[in-house]
Amino acid sequence: MKQININICIQHYQLDELNADDRELIERALKATENSYAEYSHFYVGAAIRLANGNIMIGANQENAAFPSSLCAERTAIFAAQANYPDQAITTLAIVARNDNGLLDDPVSPCGGCRQVILGVEDRYKSPIRILLYGKRGVYCVASAKDLLPLSFVDASMG
Ligand code: THU
Question: Reduced to 3 states, what is the DSSP secondary structure of residue 158?
Answer without folding.
Answer: helix
